[in-house]
Amino acid sequence: MATHIELNRTGDKMPIVGFGCWKVEKDCADTIYNAIKAGYRLIDGAAAYENEVEVGQGIARAIQEGIVKREDLFVVSKLWNTDHHKDHVRPAFDRTLKDMGLDYIDLYLVHFPIPVKHVDPKVQYPGGWENPETKKMEYQRSPLHLCWAEMEKLVDAGLVRNIGISNTNVMMLLDMFSYCRYKPATLQVELHPYLQQNNLVRWVQSQDVAITAYSSFGPASYVQLNEAGKTAKPLLTHETIEQVAKKYSKSPAQVLLRWSVQRNVAVIPKSMNVDRMKANLDLFDWTLEDEDIKTINSLEMGARFNDTLEYGIDLPLFD
Ligand SMILES: NC(=O)c1ccc[n+]([C@@H]2O[C@H](COP(=O)([O-])OP(=O)(O)OC[C@H]3O[C@@H](n4cnc5c(N)ncnc54)[C@H](OP(=O)(O)O)[C@@H]3O)[C@@H](O)[C@H]2O)c1
After folding, report:
1. In-domain check, residue 88
2. Distance in angstroms (rounded) separating the CA atoms of residues 173 and 20
């Protein structure tokens, strides 16, 4: 079982298990440092997670202590919706780089294919979904092809090694393929047994675009955020997952992560707890048998938790 996915164009080896930085709030620098110490080499951040300064501090400490060199790490960040305009991509990226104290990023993603009216970082940083003045989500005429051209310029400038996109579908990728100079290296989407997106995964992988799954534990990180997260049966204590876990003497979390990596889909679990961090990395010396994969696959129900509609935003993005 490969521990990396080789990315198109650069051939860079993206670790198939990384550490997710969303909602790493308290003791963030220590958490990132601990994650690197525990063995994580991919750090999945974003301007929108409001912790890039602390993430950078955690990385700096791990480098200072000689645990890793910068080139051993694969650092990911994401461009927020309010910075899609061609005049705002570079300044937004520069802020991320400065906040993290780095001089390049391994992978920069367009966080959502939603161009939202720009917000001056002096007024609000990072921007949100709603405009701070009107308290409404306002769109902006900044087409993705112009935004993508700016992302490509970051590659040309040697500031970003790979570029990709998140929260989108086949239709948009097909359109991107028709104008891009640099094909997206990765697509990051919500994926777990309740939302398997088999056609998307199969087709995107066949186009040599790597897939990263976020929220591998399904509703776990949405319990406090929305109704779907609150009401769905947790996957981490689901009897089907527990039964499979028992068979392999693994935890339900490990089964959910292994289920992804076994289809060559990268995972980026987030945990504040060092033992769980370590366990989430321990996915490589065992294999789920086909019958257990089938059992897990039977949990499909098309349930999406990170859905704009679930946050009360009237945008059926995934329809
Ligand atoms: N592109 C996007 O739009 C997008 C959207 C969402 C997420 N993401 C990325 O994906 C990452 C992961 O997704 P996520 O943050 O939604 O959550 P997740 O990794 O699916 O789940 C995190 C939750 O699971 C718990 N957990 C972690 N390991 C566990 C284990 N071994 N046993 C039991 N519970 C465990 C964590 O609690 P503890 O911390 O207490 O362990 C936390 O409550 C994010 O951090 C972010 O980097 C990207």
Report:
1. yes
2. 24
Give the domain CATH number at 205.
3.20.20.100
Contact in structure between 186 and 7 (CB atoms under 8 Å): yes
Tokens read off for 37: 């110490």
Q: Which domain holds residue 71?
A: 4-217+265-270
Atom index in ligand 1 nearest the CA of residue 272 equals 39
Residue 254 is assigned to a structural domain of this protein: no
| Residue pLDDT tens, the chain, 319 long | 789 999 999 999 999 999 999 999 889 999 999 999 999 999 999 999 999 999 999 999 999 999 999 999 999 999 999 999 999 999 999 999 999 999 999 999 999 999 999 999 999 999 999 999 999 999 999 999 999 999 999 999 999 999 999 999 999 999 999 999 999 999 999 999 999 999 999 999 999 999 999 999 999 999 989 999 999 999 999 999 999 999 999 999 999 999 999 999 999 999 999 999 999 999 999 999 999 999 999 999 999 999 999 988 999 999 9
Domain count, the chain: 1
Task: Answer yes or no: is 230 within a domain.
Answer: no
Please name the residues in contact with 42: beta carbons below 8 A apart, sequence gap of 6 or more: 14, 15, 17, 18, 19, 73, 74, 75, 76, 266, 268
Ligand 1 binding pocket (C-beta < 6 A) is 20-23, 44, 111, 166-167, 188, 214-217, 220-221, 236, 251, 253, 268-273, 276, 279-280, 306
Residue 82 is assigned to a structural domain of this protein: yes
